[in-house]
Amino acid sequence: MSSAQLIRSARDCLVQVRGRTAGSGFLAAPGYVVTCAHVSGVTGSAVELYWQGRQLRGTVRAASPAPDDEGLWPYPDLAIVELQDPPEDHPCTWWHDQIPMGGQQLTAAGYSDKYTYEPEIVTSTFTYQGDQNFHDGLMLRLKQDEVTPGMSGGPVLDLSAGGVCAVVKATRMDSTDMGGLATPVGALRCLDPTAYRALVRAHDAHHAADPRWPDTLAHQNAPRGRAILPPRTQRTLFGLLAAVPAPAPESLLPAFHEAAGRYAAPPRLPLHEHRDVISELQAFVVAERRVPGSLLYAAAVARELSGPAAERLRFWIEMRVESLGLDGHELARELKAPRTRSGVPRSVMIRLKPSAVDPSRYHVAMWRYAGPDAISPAAAESDALPLQEALEHARSLLPEQLAILGRSGGDPAMVELIVPQDLMEQDFDEWKPWARKAWSSLGRKHPVVLRDLERFDDDELHQYWRSRWQRFMAGAASGGPAIALACDAEADQEMLEGWIESEPSLAALVLAGSLRIPSSGAVLEVALASGVPVILWRRSDPQRCSASASSGCPHRIPRDCSTAEDAGSCPAKAFFTDLRTDVAATEPPQWPERVRQLRGKAAAGSAGGHHAKDLVLLWDDPERRLPEAPLRYA
User: Fold this and answer.
1) 87 CB contacts (<8 Å, ≥6 apart)?
2) CA-based nearest residue to 353, from 342, 362, 345
């Protein structure tokens, strides 16, 4: 492809814009024009346009807001104009939303009446001199040619990459070669997300099917190791991604980090579409013959989909890896991940960790778990927040993450709360995170379990924890896991440890009362240190095991309960018996789901309450670990 062909194609897409002022724009997608906001006017404005002698009308669907004063319009000073009656089968520019390399030659096109009575198309060739920060946004600094009046809103071409990389914004000084500023085309992501998605999906679908925009072999001046796909390859991939359901915006940043690596700096611009993630990933340098992050991300998208669109995307990825001569084992694992992980419960993991500086404040982190090699960060770890703010932050993030996991079908995803012991009486299962369903509690819709934060941080606990977990999971083959009732009145931690350690088969424990009772809290502390992986109790049961309780329970911790013949009935024993009947006969992996069902029965029961009312399940699978956290400043 010659530069002249590319410039001719850009000129064919150029439009004259008459909105707030006179300027330029370009056909960016079927029925859409991109220009500057200071040319078109604000969102909702009517715009008059001219293309190849034909008058068109349009409406500004999204634009940067007007400035408060008479200065330049704020970043990004871009606008999306929708045509009311677009010309049939009109051409469209191809965007290449990578920042050019320093010293790169760029060509801008636009309308200007500086040298004639009527506006005519002019082109200027600039040298890209580096970035310019403007209103907290990145601009391209163009020099060594003139930005003439009327060019604002016109396209800036990166000839080596084969597409439009920026939009002309301003001149430095009229009638000089001092050039001016241009806004990267990727900054369209700063506009209204709905309008941006409509524009970009129409653009990508058009170029996947329409071959009129000239091809270039590759980005010839891209640095060695840069994972930039050739333009035609990009167009095919973006077209495939435009044909699949729109992603949840909240899922894109975690997916970017999963493909780019945990130490990658977050993108400067927001992410609204799959192609935005691909564009950001192409800026990274990759090791020779390693699968680029853009292909890893495409594989991650494909594994969450089904149907013809997913099959076309999978086939394209496999063919691309083969044509590049890459080792496809890593990619194959990504593509086949859902099938190999079908037996692994999916979950949202939420960690509430006290700040090392102020233990009354908590850092919130969240992951989506689909298997030991498929753990995706769902949100960046928060700053240290007061407890109620931390809980509200976690609760607000949860619905989107559950929805993402729910798209792949199967049973309701589990919610695992990794918390310190002093937060285990929080009513996590009673959270109502869905704004439109104020009656719906988290614990009735999804299995909700607690996990011990200390076990994640203390390697010394792992051997006891794993050993008892293995016995718990093996209990199905021997009539059910060993389960006991802790119903002592006075806490003696040495005796408790002695009793638990003398019962190596003990895999699950039921507490007689809530953790508000000191004896129950003491039992929990000892049991966790001894590796007991499954513990149940009721938050709503503040009763302590009284001295008049019967000693006839064969499953209790053998302490000095009364043996009097007139001893009253033991509520803890009744709770244990009912719970054992309901839960212990269930296969061990199904305990979280069974407890979810019991919470529903309790909610549907009489006012007197069900034995599973406010039931809490600590269910601590040592195989479900978090990825190593990246280093952070103290």
Assistant:
1) 51, 54, 56
2) 362
Per-residue DSSP letter, 583: I
Tokens matching residue 158: 């990166």
**Could you tell me the CA-to-CA distances from 105 to 95, 110, 168, 323 in Å, in that order?**
17, 17, 15, 31
Amino acid, res. 531: G
CA distance readout (Å), 614 to 287, 416, 441, 460, 576: 52, 17, 12, 32, 14
Q: CA 508, CA 523: separation in Å to the nearest integer? A: 12
Which residue carries 């103290």 as its tokens?
634
Identify the DSSP state of 483: E
Helix axes 308-324, 329-340, angle to 10 degrees: 160
Q: Please compute the mean of the pLDDT values over residues 597-622 and round it to a whole number.
A: 80
Contacting residues for 388 by C-beta, under 8 A, at least 6 apart = none
Q: What is the pLDDT of residues 217-240, one digit of tens each?
A: 444 444 444 456 778 888 999 999
Task: Flag whether pLDDT at 542 surpasses 60.
Answer: no
CA atoms within 13 A on the CB side of 360: 1
pLDDT beyond 50 at 305: yes
Report the run of H or E that residue 240 belongs to, with start and end: helix 231-242
468 or 431, greater pLDDT: 431
Q: By three-state DSSP, how is residue 504 classified? A: coil
Which residue did the predictor score with more confidence, 43 or 230? Answer: 43
262-299 tens-digit pLDDT: 567 788 899 999 999 999 988 765 544 467 788 888 88
In this structure, what DSSP letter does residue 226 have? B
Cβ proximity of 331 and 291 under 8 Å: yes
Task: Residue 204: count other Cβ atoms within 10 Å of its Cβ.
Answer: 26
Q: Is the confidence at residue 320, as pLDDT, over 60?
A: yes
Sign of the dihedral defined by the CA atoms of residues 616, 620, 626, 629, in that order: positive
Residue 593 and residue 583: Cα distance in Å, rounded? 10
Asked whether the beta carbons of 350 and 363 are under 8 A apart, the reply is no
| Residues listed for the chain | 634
Give the integer Cα–Cα distance in Å for 609 and 538.
12
